[in-house]
Amino acid sequence: MAIRKVSIYDMDGTIVDSTHRYRVTADNKIDLQHWRDNQHLAMQDSLLPMAEQYKKDLADNECYVIIATARVMNEPDFRFVNEILGKPDYLISRNEGDSISGGLLKINGLAKFFNLKNFQNAEFTFYEDNATYLKTVCDRFGIRGVYIPSKQGH
Q1: Cα dihedral 13/72/135/4 (nearest 10)
Q2: Which residues have a Cβ under 8 Å from the Cβ of 116 and sit 6 or more positions away?
Q3: pTM for the complete prediction?
Q4: Measured between alpha carbons, how far is 148 from 154 in angstroms, rounded to an integer?
Q5: Is 100 helix (H, G, I), strand (E, B) or coil?
Q6: What pLDDT tens digit does each residue of the chain (154 aa) get?
Q7: Where are the beta strands (DSSP E) in 73-135?
C-alpha cells in the first residue's frame, strides 16, 4: 500500500507522561542529570490522550509513524515503547553525549524522508509540545504542526 500520511510524534509531554522523573532547574532548563538518574523508571511512565491517535496511526496501513524524541533511549525506554506505547515504523532519538538542540536533532533525523520516492505525495504532520522545536521543524520542511500543551515542553 502507498504511504499517504506520515505522522511524527514527540514522546515526552506529547504521547507519554514522564513528569514523575522530570524536573526543571532554577534557570528554567531541564535537569538532565535528574532525568538520567531516573531513566530506570521509564516503565512507570504513562500514556497521554494523544497516544490514542498515535495507536490509530500505527494501525493505519497507509500511515508511516515516526517517533522523534530528544531522549537518549535506553533499555527501559525501548521496553516502554515496545510493550506499552507500540513500536513506530521509525524512531529518532539522541545519542549519548550529544548536545545538539532538539529541533536540529529532529530535522537531521527526518530530512531523508523528504527525499524518498515513497514519501513524495504523503501528508506530513508533526505533533510536539515544545513550541520552538515545532516551529523549527515545520518551517524547515513546510509541514503541518500540531502543538500539544504540556508541563514538559521546555
Answers
A1: -90
A2: none
A3: 0.92
A4: 12
A5: coil
A6: 679 999 999 999 999 998 888 777 778 777 777 777 788 888 899 999 999 999 999 999 999 999 999 988 999 999 999 999 999 999 999 998 888 999 999 999 999 999 899 998 999 999 999 999 999 999 999 999 999 998 776 5
A7: 90-94, 123-128
